[in-house]
Design goal:
Layout lengths: L6 E3 L7 H8 L7 H13 L8 H4 L2 E4 L14 E6 L2 E5 L4 E7 L18 E5 L15 H13 L2 E7 L3 E4 L5 H18 L6 E6 L1 H8 L17 E3 L2 E6 L7 H10 L11 H12 L5
Parallel strand pairs: 3-6, 5-7, 5-9, 9-11
Antiparallel strand pairs: 1-4, 2-6, 3-8, 4-7, 10-11
Helix pairs in contact: 1-5, 4-8
Amino acid sequence: MATGSPTIFCRPGFIDLRRLYERLRQVIALSPTEFDRVYQALRNTFDRPSDSPFLHDFVRKPIALVNPELLQSPNPEHPGIDLPCWLETSGSDRRIILLGQDPLRDDRYFPHASQSEPSVVIGTPYSVHSASLRRQGNNPRYWGIISKLLAAGYNLYLTDVGKFWARGQRARAASARTYRMILEEEFALSAPSGSPSLIVTFGKQAAAFLLGADYPATTKIGKETAQIFSRGPIRVLPVLHPSPQNEGILKAYLRANEVDPDQGVSGIAEVITKTISRFGGRRP
């Protein structure tokens, strides 16, 4: 990728891993040493392409380790966990949190599902850890935005609202409480010292989870100018979801935010940087 300086993926010193692991144990019961090993496995694939990335670029753990509160079946279909990850551009002290919704999985992640004990497939949001998958499917849409933000000098922390996903499961109130507690700790850990966290949400569902009645899930993100909402110790910037489903309204959205629509979906990065500049105040 082309940023002005090398990108550093999941450097341990970026965040207090001890506190992060304590929260993540509410998703899957791993020891700090086991979490370290998972993250090291993910680091190993960041710059190393694979012929079979769906098989080799993810970590698999027994489904029995997942918090029972998050399970609606002892043998869920296509279970997945996305662990938070972070990307740094050398010499920058500015941080943005990118918040997505769920760690979706499909058949490609489970080539031998019938031949082994039930397992959960662990990765990162938008398969950022995988040199191969960043270039496949819809992932380049997200990676293009991420790359531009890195090039603009922002360090990034990526996470999801829902840390666990399985086909057919509906979110429950208990799960939402767990995820909210985890996110609150993540925001506190990843914020620059003395500064509020700036969270960019991809789409309205993630924004509604944080803002509640201030941003109902029925809100349409389309032709309006992006804005930043303040809520307690966080600032939230909802942007159009980069999904191909929004291709029909993407150009109008970029024009509304004074961004060249010919940039395509990666122009959302400029929407983010322009909105930050427009709202002024201390840099995130």
